TrEMBL record, chain A:
SUPFAM superfamilies associated with the record: MOP-like, P-loop containing nucleoside triphosphate hydrolases
Organism encoding this protein: Oceanomicrobium pacificus
One function term, GO molecular function aspect: ABC-type maltose transporter activity
InterPro entries: AAA+_ATPase, ABC_transporter-like_ATP-bd, ABC_transporter-like_CS, ABC_transpr_MalK-like, ABC_transpr_MalK/UgpC-like, Mo/tungstate-bd_C_term_dom, NA-bd_OB-fold, P-loop_NTPase
Upper classification of the organism: Bacteria, Pseudomonadati, Pseudomonadota, Alphaproteobacteria, Rhodobacterales
PANTHER family referenced in this protein's UniProt entry, alphabetically: MALTODEXTRIN IMPORT ATP-BINDING PROTEIN MSMX (PTHR43875), MALTOSE_MALTODEXTRIN IMPORT ATP-BINDING PROTEIN MALK (PTHR43875:SF3)
Protein family per UniProt: Belongs to the ABC transporter superfamily.
Segments forming domain ABC transporter: 4-234
Family matches, as Pfam families: ABC_tran (PF00005), TOBE_2 (PF08402)
Alphabetized UniProt keyword annotations: ATP-binding, Nucleotide-binding, Transport
Entry GO CC: ATP-binding cassette (ABC) transporter complex, substrate-binding subunit-containing; maltose transport complex
Record protein name field: ATP-binding cassette domain-containing protein
From TrEMBL, chain B:
Record GO biological process: transmembrane transport
Subcellular location: Cell membrane
Family: Belongs to the binding-protein-dependent transport system permease family.
Keywords associated with the record: Cell membrane, Membrane, Transmembrane, Transmembrane helix, Transport
GO CC annotation, single: plasma membrane
Pfam families on file: BPD_transp_1
Gene3D superfamilies: MetI-like
PROSITE patterns per the UniProt record, alphabetical: ABC_TM1
Transmembrane region(s): 12-32, 71-96, 108-131, 143-163, 184-207, 240-261
Keyword rRNA-binding: no
Protein name: ABC transporter permease subunit
Occurrences of domain ABC transmembrane type-1 (ranges): 72-262
Membrane topology: Multi-pass membrane protein
Amino acid sequence: MGQITLENVTKSFGSTEVIPPLDLTIEDGEFCVFVGPSGCGKSTLLRLIAGLEDVTSGQILIDGAEATTTPPSKRGLAMVFQSYALYPHMSVRKNIAFPMRMAKIPAEEQERRIEAAARALNLTDYLDRRPGQLSGGQRQRVAIGRAIVREPAAFLFDEPLSNLDAALRVGMRLEISELHERLKTTMIYVTHDQVEAMTMADKIVVLRAGHIEQVGSPLDLYRAPRNLFVAGFIGSPKMNFIEGEEAARRGAATIGIRPEHIAVSTDSGPWAGTVSVSEHLGSDTFFHVQGTGLAETITVRADGEVGFRHGDRIHLTPRDDVIHRFDEQGLRIA
Amino acid sequence: MARATSTQRKLGTTLLAWAVGLLIFFPIYWTILTSFKTEAQAISDPPVFLFFDWTLENYSIVQERSDYMRFLWNSVIIAGGSTLLGILIAVPAAWSMAFVPSKRTKDILLWMLSTKMLPAVGVLYPISLIFVEFNLLDTRIGLVIVLMLINLPIIVWMLYTYFREIPGEILEAARMDGASLGKEILYVLTPMAVPGIASTILLNIILAWNEAFWTLNLTAANAAPLTAFIASYSSPEGLFFAKLSAASTMAIAPILILGWFSQKQLVRGLTFGAVK
């Protein structure tokens, strides 16, 4: 079991309020991602749940039980750190065994769980090495191994993939998702990378300056962002925002249109502009279009290879059914 | 150009280093040498360097007149005991300063260090009175406590700088893994800080071993360590240089040997914080 509830939680460092009053429930078995730009308080929030920071006021409940002042060692949560935080003086085997040793689990049971974790994480050949002799990906797997053997109520991940190179990151992302499918344990995952958030989460919590901007499934946030911030943060490339006459015509202060919802053509379409940069990925092509008179740059995504180049004049057709409308306060107009 | 001068430069610095090294070593060399001379040769003018009648006479006289082993044993207990006690107190202190610092941590550290600037004689009277009051005069336990207190600021400072190099996340990981504070310090922090703790221990054993002010002032016979053993061969009986040298050699030999075998750790300890 691992339901985590935050009630009216606040955190201040000195006179600086990092987390204003905040309520949030993470359901048992859920994969919940905290996402937001750096400094938005997402790591602080995770550390409050872990118990590594004390809340200034409010309550934290784990499975309905008051845990606000419970020390981290007694909360039954496991954490994977950005820097892996392995014990450098212990072998991989001893690193993985450490939480079980602290919990006084019998030696045979420890051994059984270590073997199982090592098999699942491809670490069997490395059990007797020190962390210093492992690659970044292997170290991250050891950190995950150390977290799973203690069978925690929930896993906390603090930007676990940001020290890995791009290819490894994608692989580890899949491994963590598979792990969640297999264990069905609550996972809270902090990242600034919205792609990680979109691909892994059951529920995304978008944070800005300690405030929760929106909570929802990845596709909820994609389809119905509550405000301009969420609209701009979720989705890659970023949503295009258009103000002025074009927006007013649709009864909004700002309209947003995602790059994948704009069609390109050589001769017809309501908007027209010049290609400043075209990015050809093979599977997709991205155009950065200028001179439309709508916004400085409009980003457009086209399926497959589309042969426009720098300087080409093109026409754009937005899909009217997926245009997002926002009022003067930047809030979504339903 | 750089290559051409570098050999010459190397030679120059090597010679200079040797010269300085020999200069520093000379008193020790001379003490050891003198301890093998007769009293007459020891004060002969011009001094004799190598060609004299080597004798072990001084050593046997010194051993006859005073029980070397008793002084040695006192030194071992006082130096070892004060260092061990200091480490036990300083590890938690340095832990809290390094990992949960407050606004005043730096001030506390400086204040602790500032006590080292007070001349020891300034507190001789109050400490003597306390010793009389608690019957600690001429006891090993009394000296262990005093030398521990004298060296504690240095022990805390050294451990603090070592601990600061250890990433806090690793200790947080231990906490998440279910380790209590004691286990976190015992199983994670201490093993990672072993090199630092070792050099701290070594340096403090040496400092306590060589400490002469308190050991001379607060002891008479029972708890007197090797510093008192040397002192007993100076003035009152006239200047018996050869015997004094023999006593000195016997007093410094153990610590010299310890220092020799732990050079690497010591250098790290003495330059703590300077190079990272």
